Every structure is written in C-alpha cells, then in structure tokens.
Amino acid sequence: MISKTSILDAGLKPLQDWITAAGFPSYRAKQVMQWIFERRADSFDTMSDVPKRLRELLAQEWCIFTTTVAHHDISPDGTDKLLLTCADDRRIECVLMAEDDRRTVCISTQVGCGMGCVFCASGLKGVVRNLTRGELLEQVLRLRNLLPPDERLTNIVVMGMGESLANLDNLIAALDQICSPQGLGMSQRRITVSTVGLPEKMYKLAELDRQYHLAVSLHAPTEALRNELVPINEKVGLTAVIEAADAYFQRSGRQVTFEYVMLSGVNDRREDALALAGLLKSRKAHVNVIPYNPVEGLPFERPTPDAIRRFVDTIRAGGVSISVRKTKGRPIDAACGQLRRRFDGNEPLRVLEQQPTVGS
Ligand code: SAH
Predict the structure, then answer these.
(1) Residues 201 and 262 in one domain
(2) Which of 256, 258, 264, 313 is packed most tightly, with the most Cβ within 10 A?
(3) How does residue 345 score in pLDDT terms, banded at 50, 70 and 90?
(4) What is the CATH number of the domain that holds 302?
(5) 120 lines ligand 1 (CB under 6 A)
C-alpha cells in the first residue's frame, strides 16, 4: 500500500507544487487549506468549490488527518477528551475544555515523556518519539471541529503528554500555522507553552520573539526537593531554570507562570510556601497551583482544600501572585497521560457512558 502524504505535515508550499504539477492553478492549494482550517473539512469530497477531478487526485495521494479517534470521552463539566491512534499505532491524547466564553484545547507534544517527574503518568514508560507538526495541528483541528459552528477556539495550552520544548521545532511550526491568517488566526498571546524547564530551549524560545505565555513546572522551591520530584533538575538546576524564565520575561515582556503541583505532605508544607515566596517575590511572576490528580499506583495524594488554602495564603502574604487551577474533566482522566494509560494498560477497552457536555 502506498502511504499518503499528510497535508498538515507538508504545509502549503509542497501542496502548491503538487497541484500545479497536476495541471491546476496554485491558488487551489490555499483553497484546500482554507477548507481544512476555516471550514472544518475532514475529507476532500466536501470541498464543493474545488474541481471534482482535483479532489479525486488529492484523495489518492494526500490525507488530511493521519490519526483515527480511538476513544472520545465527554465529561459532564464540558470537557471532551480524544484518544487518537497515530499512523504508527501509538496513542496520544488531547482535551477540549469549555468554560464561560473560553474554548481551550490542551495538546500533547510527544508520545510518552522522557522527563520522569515522579508523580506524573505520562513519563512512566519513557518517551517514544516527538509528534510531527501535522499531528500537533491535527489535535487542535479535531477538537475545534467538535465545537458548534458558531463557536471558535479561544486558547491553546500545550500541557498534555510530553515535554513541549523537547519538540520545539515542530511545536513552533504548528503554532505559527495556527496563528497565521491562513491557519486559525489565533493570537500568540492566547497560547500557553508549559515546560519542565529546559533552560537552553527556553533561551531559544525567547530568541524566536513569539508572544507565547510560558509556564514553567517548578513544583519545588529548593534544589533538593526539586531533584526528588523532577529528576531532570539534577542536570539543569533550579537556579538555571529561574534565570531562563527571567530571560524569557525580559525578552518577551510576558510574565511567566510557575506551575506547582501540590502533593500532600511532600511540597505543601509551610516551609515550602515560605521558600517559594522568598524565591519569587522579587520577580514579576505568577504561581499556578495544580491540586494533584492522583495516578493509580503512585504514592501521592492531593492535599485537603484547607492545606491548599493555607499554602496559597502564605504565598500571597509573601507578596507573590498566586491562583489555584480548577480541575476539570476528572471523571474522564483528563490529567496528562492518564487516559492513554488506562487504554494501554491491561485493562480491557471499555467505552464509558457518554454524557452531554454542559454549556456548549
Ligand atoms: N512537560 C510539560 C507539560 C506537562 S503537563 C511540563 O512539565 O510542564 C502540564 C503540567 O501538569 C505539568 O506542570 C505537570 O507537572 C503537571 N502534572 C503532571 N501530572 C499531574 C497530575 N497527575 N496531577 C496534576 N498535575 C500533573
């Protein structure tokens, strides 16, 4: 079987070249892209103003999506989660969240993850590979296509499976397309890239002069504790991560968010809060606390609401801006790596009862 070329991987230019070589004017390529990005086409035969012969030729050689939907979970709080099977049978996951006027997608950047954060489900089996630019775009488009016709995506968070900056080139290529007028025309400022904190890549990102919001997964205020929770820290060091975050802020003018997953009895003590406030108070930074989503088989627990409140109050009293992330999609394992794990484990594939989304 001859495998087809992915339009989303290839981009406009190769498609234009192919279309002109096939004897059609090159503007047809833009028209095809417009169908995919603006008009939500997921097959060539719906592209009614493209000549039928060209649609047939395209369908023989090109494909729009390379993944198939292995599972679609809908949570009552307005969260859709897709488990996608890639062409090489690997599984990736992505989520659409609806809240008030926001329609946010959360995408994965890798199959698995190589960072090994001890509380996270994504890295339990290591990293398999980077996702291609097309696979990154496809997650966004598949989720966007679930929205009612009159709704648009408002935000993207790169917080799914994988270390975003370990796949920086493909990620930037995909996000550039999303933000271009020929893509979804989304503002760079509405895109958040979350990283474990790879200083070299953070400098590189800063030099690219984009306006992305950078979120750095700090999770601990001291080298010793961070080494325990985020093993890559032994190589990079907390100080270097903070310096790189400062550099990103200086260059982009965008305030950096520090993510802090709260693990009961591990990093939620008063001394942790005091140390964190001490570390960040001289900076224009924001802390986003993520109450832990328990992962089966891992020895961590979410702190009580009281413990979270105490932690937040201490940070605030220390003069640092802080918020607590709302947990959405719990019934559908919407934390990174959790859905894939359920399906990749020994558990038989079970289709959850699908419930209608609320408010969308
Ligand atoms: N590799 C990127 C993206 C990871 S996912 C990064 O490290 O930032 C986004 C955030 O979710 C990270 O801060 C990650 O540490 C956190 N996270 C992972 N597993 C979690 C869990 N079970 N509960 C809550 N947060 C989790």
Answers:
(1) yes
(2) 258
(3) very low
(4) 3.20.20.70
(5) yes
Domain stop point among 47, 63, 79: 63
Tell me: do 297 and 168 sit in the same domain.
yes
Measured in angstroms, how far is the CA atom of residue 214 from the centroid of ligand 1?
A: 14
- Of the listed 93, 135, 138, 259, which one is catalytic? 93
DSSP code of 47?
Answer: -
Q: Does the CB atom of residue 293 touch ligand 1 within 6 A?
A: yes
The percentage of the chain sitting over the pLDDT mark of 90, rounded to a whole number, equals: 86
For this structure, is 38 an active site residue? no
Mean pLDDT, residues 168-180: 98
Output Rg (C-alpha) for the chain, integer angstroms.
21
Tokens of 301: 């627990």
Enclosing domain of residue 26: 5-63
pLDDT digits (tens, 9 = 90+) for 38-76: 999 999 999 999 999 999 999 999 999 999 999 999 988
Instruction: Report the chain's mean pLDDT, rounded to a whole number.
Output: 91
Q: Is 93 a catalytic residue?
A: yes
User: Is the CB of residue 360 less than 8 Å from the CB of residue 148?
Assistant: yes
Q: How far is the CA of 347 from the centre of ligand 1 (A)?
A: 24
Q: Give the integer Cα–Cα distance in Å for 333 and 36.
A: 29
Q: What pLDDT does 78 receive?
A: 80
168-179 vs 199-207: helix axis angle to the nearest 10? 30
Q: Does the pTM of the predicted model rise above 0.90?
A: yes
Burial of residue 323 (CB within 10 Å: 0-12, 13-18, 19+) is exposed
Residue 70 lies in a domain: no
Name the closest-CA residue to atom 3, ligand 1: 159
> Measured in angstroms, how far is the CA atom of residue 112 from the centroid of ligand 1?
12
In angstroms, the Cα distances linking 348 to 54, 112, 337, 343, 351 are: 43, 20, 17, 7, 10
**Which pLDDT tens digit goes with each residue over 308-333?**
999 999 999 999 999 998 876 655 55
pLDDT at residue 261 greater than cutoff 90: yes
